[in-house]
Sequence to fold (326 residues):
Amino acid sequence: MILFTYFADFLVYTIFGLSADTKIAGSLHFFFEDISKIFVLLIILIYLISLLRAGLKPERIRNFLSGKKRGVSYFLASLFGAVTPFCSCSSIPLFMGFTQAGIPLGITMAFLITSPIVNEIALVLLGSLLGWKFMVLYAGVGIIAGVLGGLFIDLIKADRYLTPFAQNMLGNSSESTTHVNYSKKISLSERNTFALTELRTILKRVWIWVFAGVGIGALFHGFVPESFILNYLGAGKIWTVPAAVVVGIPLYSNATGIIPVAESLLQKGLPLGTTLAFMMSTVAASLPEFMMLKQVMKIKLLLIFFAMLLFFFTLTGWIFNFFTII
Fold:
């Protein structure tokens, strides 16, 4: 990921000639670094997933999952989310790939919830500051959140709240934009054509939301001071944890970018649980993510997803605040 940082450095400090200690430079640097990273990841992941999907029968995946208890499927998807080093936005291509493969929505949501929450940088931070017990507890809470979230999504039959585009990918519509004949062996050229078609189709739907979301996040990133968070959320009251979650949602950062902020907040006295809730919200519940998901989820499902994240982040914050005072 360091190449994206160098790219943003070159644009902001060399081409634009801005000083690194200005707010506008911070916002622009954040924008160019994240917009380039997200689009590169989107292009690579969507293409590779579509390339694999072209020669993979969706029935095989569905049969594999149906051969296991649903709870095991939720756990496997959540565990996969825990070990994949993706931020919330770069998890979206895999989410779409799961949907394209006909995997039930609850299982894909288990992955989507856990993937950006349980990241290696947060685990290293907790392990170095508080020891392995807190690191394991944090990973366990994130995986359980994914399992419970996926279970809830399937219980309410939330696939009816997907957009026609997403329902089409799930195989609920006969108006598929791209068809693959699985009765014959697919050549590499045909796979490539299929993957490029899928890539164009998805990028046309999400590119404007990526630009808009990262732009809004960049403004918050550059112009919202750290002191604001500390002054209003540092009291340790029970309401400060959900408040930290709400404050973190529009800020948006990747895990690497938020760790120095989290360390600073901890050193200045912000409770651990409140800091973690803020960090998870900033990393895992970003505006770019919701804007991209708007292409596959109707507003009702987006609100349900948002409410689940708010609940799990808040619960995690309360749990860690409780364990640090006993």
